[in-house]
Amino acid sequence: MTDLTVSQAAALLRRFDDVLILTHVRPDGDTVGCAAALCVGLRALGKRAYLLRNSGQTRTTAPYIQPYEAPEDFIPAKIVSTDIASLGLLPKNAERYADKVDLAIDHHPSFERFGRENIVRPEAAACGELIYDILRELGPVTAEIALPLYVAVSTDTGCFQYSNTSANTHRVAAELLDTGIDYQTANKIFFRTKSRKRMTMEGDMLANMEFYDGGRVVVLKVPISLMERVQADEGDAEDLSSLGGQIEGSDCAITMRELKPDVWKFSVRTGERVNASTVCAELGGGGHAAAAGCTVEAPLLEAKRKMLDAVEKVAGKFTD
Question: How many alpha carbons fall within 13 Å on the CB side of residue 117?
Answer without folding.
Answer: 15
